[in-house]
Each structure stands twice: as structure tokens, then as C-alpha cells.
Amino acid sequence: MADTIRREYPNTPLRLGLAIPGILHVEKSPSQIDFAKALDSFKVNSIGPLLLMKHLSQFIPAKSAQAFTADAASSHDSLPLPSHAIYAMMAARVGSISDNASGGWYSYRASKAAVFQLAKSFDLYLQTKSAQRAIAVALHPGTVQTDFTKDFWGGRDMLEPIDAAGKLLEVLARLPSDAKGGRGRCWDWKGEEVVP
């Protein structure tokens, strides 16, 4: 993938990178934890974004790079992007240790909690490599009405996939690149921080 990007788009920095994997094996009690399924959760939810970060980090602009021109909205449907690059990874509110009030979903919660750490660690790296030219964050899309969540549709507020994606892009477009602006943290589809 990295070789293809380098060949097809030489000297083009990454402006917006999204790592959006997700798999859930439900474990309501410790007795339901299965090694192969737990490993699968970590491979998809944590290690996948980790390896994408490894291979895509070379395309993120350095601090000496020229800032992107902030896009002006040309119509009511377009969303202006900020002048810095953003690398975002899909976390989940259930990955928040502080927010965990019900337990269960052991491997899913743990593998998504790892994404909070990946976003923070990668952002610290970007602060050195890219300064204000790039940030890393984690995202929580809300409960989205897809096959992934079909067993949990009853009694929940649901977002359509297109709505969740649009709201997350709006959140990303508003994130500043300064240290106080939200870099290295997790943001939900409403623009509210999800604490680790």
C-alpha cells in the first residue's frame, strides 16, 4: 500500500488519514473469553491501526513542510479542511476505562482502549516530527446502524452511517493543531471528548 501511494502520488503529503477497523466478539462473562476471538479483536481493532500508522507515518508532513491551504467551502455541501494534516483512528466509548460502568465485552473494550493510547503516543511523535503541521486523534462514531451493531439496535439512539461519517468529518475539520486544541485525545461524533 505504501509503495503504491509513493508511486501514484509522489511528493504528496497525507492530509487526512482514517483508520476505521472494527470487530466485536461479545463476552458477557470471563468464562466466554475465547483466545482466538480475543486475539482477533486485538488484530483488527488495535494492531491493524498500529501497522497502518507505521506505514502511513512517512507521508505525514514534517514541520518544515508548507501548511495546507485551508479549503474554502465552495458550496453548502463541502466541508473546509484545516491547514494541518490529521491522522484519526476509530476508538469506541466502551474503550474508555473511566466510562466503563457495565463491564463485559472484555476483548473489544481492551482492544479499543489501546486505540486511545495509540492516538496519544502517535500525536506525541507528530509534535516532534510535524509540530503544528499534523495531529493524531481517536474518534467515537456513536452507535451506528450497521450489521456490526444489529444485535444492539433495540432501545438505542442510532445514527445512519452517512450521518455518523459526516459528523465525524465536521469534528475533524474543527480540530486545531495546538496542544490545547484536542490533539492526542478521543472525540465523539458530537465533538465531545471521550476520556480514557
Description of the structure:
This protein is of the alpha/beta class and 196 residues long. Helix content is 34%, strand content 11%. The chain is built from four helices and five strands, in the order αβαβαβαββ.
**What is the makeup of the main sheet?**
5 strands, mixed
H/E series: HEHEHEHEE
CATH H level, superfamily name: NAD(P)-binding Rossmann-like Domain
Mean residue pLDDT = 90
Structural class: alpha/beta
**CATH fold-level name:** Rossmann fold
Major sheet: arrangement of strands: 1-2-3-4-5
Low-confidence stretches: none
Main attributes of the structure:
196 residues; alpha/beta; Rossmann fold; 5-stranded mixed sheet; 4 helices; 5 strands; globular
What order do the helices and strands come in, and which of them pair?
Blueprint: H1 2-8, E1 16-19, H2 35-56, E2 85-90, H3 106-129, E3 134-140, H4 161-174, E4 186-188, E5 193-194
Parallel strand pairs: 1-2, 2-3, 3-4
Antiparallel strand pairs: 4-5
Helix pairs in contact: 2-3
Question: Nutshell version of this structure?
Answer:
With 196 residues, the protein is of the alpha/beta class.
